[in-house]
């Protein structure tokens, strides 16, 4: 069942001057299906052990699994066909001036990449580094096939900055999402901001707005050794 809900903790306007707020621009979806809840567990030693006895690609794969990576959810909109979304761990900043740029890479083929290429815009969502963020990240690892990608978002909602669906990438809202970065593809970059490297495409985007979603500031969700991770202790001198 789809409900139209507002989120009073949001600190950005759902409409801008001259825009109309549609009753269905914020949606929260609920499912009756039950699943095992996410929870934290004690830290464990790595399960991978890089060795030169394996082929070089496997050596690199093992080493990369020892390095924590940020986990974000990227949304976009395929004109005429609706929203697309995916969880990714390759997101990073590129430069802050003269305008802030971010980058990530996507394996091809990808429906989310097709939407980014067609629409020229996308939103990157920074997730809470706890069970709530892990739940959101896991939802968007299921791909864009077989129904609406934003269905069954238990405890989450989404909205469109233009007040109606179909024109811009949706902004996720609710528990587990701390911030959203509204971005557009940097068209004046090489290859119009979409650089193909073998079977991947590197996306270069310009940040046009930061949206505060919910909760207090905390460290974001990380991923290493095939598990979601929380930032741990501090090394000081």
Overall SS class: mainly beta
Helical stretch tally = 3
Q: Report the radius of gyration as a whole number of Å.
A: 19 Å
Main sheet specs: 8 strands, antiparallel
How would you summarize what this structure contains?
The protein is mainly beta and 237 residues long.
Please, could you describe this protein's structure?
- This protein has 237 residues and is mostly beta strands.
- It is 12% helix and 33% strand.
- It contains three helices and 15 strands.
- The chain has helices spanning 56-65, 111-119, 131-139, and strands at residues 2-3, 27-29, 69-70, 72-78, 82-88, 92-95, 101-107, 121-127, 156-159, 171-174, 177-185, 194-197, 200-212, 222-224, 227-229.
- Strands 4, 5, 6, 7, 8, 11, 12 and 13 form an eight-stranded antiparallel sheet that branches.
- Strand 6 and strand 7 (101-107) form a beta hairpin.
- The chain is globular and about 50 Å long.
- Residues 1-33 have low confidence and may be disordered.
